Amino acid sequence: MVPDLPPHWLHPPDIATARAAQAEMAARILPEDDLPDCIARLGGADVSNTRFDPAKRVHAALVTLDAATDAVLASSGESRKADFPYVPGYLGFREVPALRACWDRLSVRPDIILVDGQGMAHPRGLGLACHLGLVLGVPTIGVAKSRLVGEGEPGPDPGDATPLMWKGRCIGTALRTRRGARPLYVSVGHRVSLATATRLVLAVTRGRRLATPIRAAHDAANAARLQG
DNA sequence: GCGACAG
DNA sequence: ATCTTGTCGC
């Protein structure tokens, strides 16, 4: 299980409290590599929603893949009612609680988790990936399919990358993973450097736009939704 | 006031 | 996020 945390880090009563919690958490993010010598297991995290769902449930999934073969080593899902609404900039408060439940039941733990969402490429430097990484105490990388804040357009070829700039600061990498496809926005989540994060994401692309662990997590989250 | 706005 | 088949292009 995960160590005890300030209640408002997971269940803030309102946006103002959530904002204050983000400031507390942002100060604890480690943006430097703190990884095992060899990354043997890659994690993927994603959450799916049901359209027009009056029950407001979220369906989270965490998967662990063998870094060498892409085989799924473990997978866990969690469906529950979200106790926080979707508000741009506060995604963690809606999705992290369910993902933490997934983590507690994940039989094989990954060395690092690729999260479907922003890391430090966030208005207050605390996107979903940072939030999850800090709560779990695990290295994470933010891998978003679109941008929240920042500017930067990479070249057309796979591997082309450019700094994602915001207010004069580099907050992430706009990364082209596939020709003709929109870029991915990679940023530091927790216990990893931007350079390592960018290199790792590109390495698990396999010629497609999305990173393999995230595709697997997306599939698992959808499976959790179709069941309960 | 207006436009932008991860999943 | 989600609703959805075929179709255009490399």
Automatic annotation (TrEMBL):
Residues flagged as site, Interaction with target DNA = 86
Query: Where is the protein situated, by its record's location annotation?
Result: Cytoplasm
The prosthetic group or cofactor this protein requires is: Mg(2+)
Q: Which reaction does it catalyse?
A: Endonucleolytic cleavage at apurinic or apyrimidinic sites to products with a 5'-phosphate
Gene3D superfamilies linked to this entry: archaeoglobus fulgidus dsm 4304 superfamily
InterPro entries found in the cross-reference section: Endonuclease-V
Q: What is its main location?
A: cytoplasm
User: Which annotated residues bind Mg(2+)?
Assistant: 46, 116
Q: What is its EC number?
A: 3.1.21.7
An example Gene Ontology cellular component term from the record? cytoplasm
Q: Which UniProt keywords apply?
A: Cytoplasm, DNA damage, DNA repair, Endonuclease, Hydrolase, Magnesium, Metal-binding, Nuclease
Give GO MF terms, alphabetically: deoxyribonuclease V activity; magnesium ion binding; RNA endonuclease activity producing 5'-phosphomonoesters, hydrolytic mechanism; single-stranded RNA binding
Q: GO biological process: any one?
A: DNA repair
Top enzyme class of this protein?
Answer: hydrolase
Coiled-coil annotated spans: none
Function as written in the Swiss-Prot or TrEMBL entry:
DNA repair enzyme involved in the repair of deaminated bases. Selectively cleaves double-stranded DNA at the second phosphodiester bond 3' to a deoxyinosine leaving behind the intact lesion on the nicked DNA.
Q: Which family does it belong to?
A: Belongs to the endonuclease V family.
> Could you tell me which HAMAP family the record lists for this protein?
Endonuclease_5
Task: State the protein's name.
Answer: Endonuclease V
